[in-house]
Amino acid sequence: MEEAQESRGENLVLERSTKQFACRYFYGGSWWGINLSAYNWADAEARARTLGVQLDGEIGAIDPAFEGAGVCVRLWTILRNISRPRAQ
Asked: Does residue 3 lie within any of the structural domains?
């Protein structure tokens, strides 16, 4: 079996870390939400503008098992998300 060859520069791991931002858009009579990865608030604004979505704010924490998490974890996640400043 032949292995796929990748040209130089493809699939590079980004050296800078990204943050997650909450965005929303209106489609089919309803509001929908997406998460957007960006380096900072200005980068998130530019990406949201390019995609035509409304930028709502930076996501402070994401817990993939939120529903199964204990009360302390859920409370920490909620407080972390609401205590983050909107624009940085």
From this structure: no
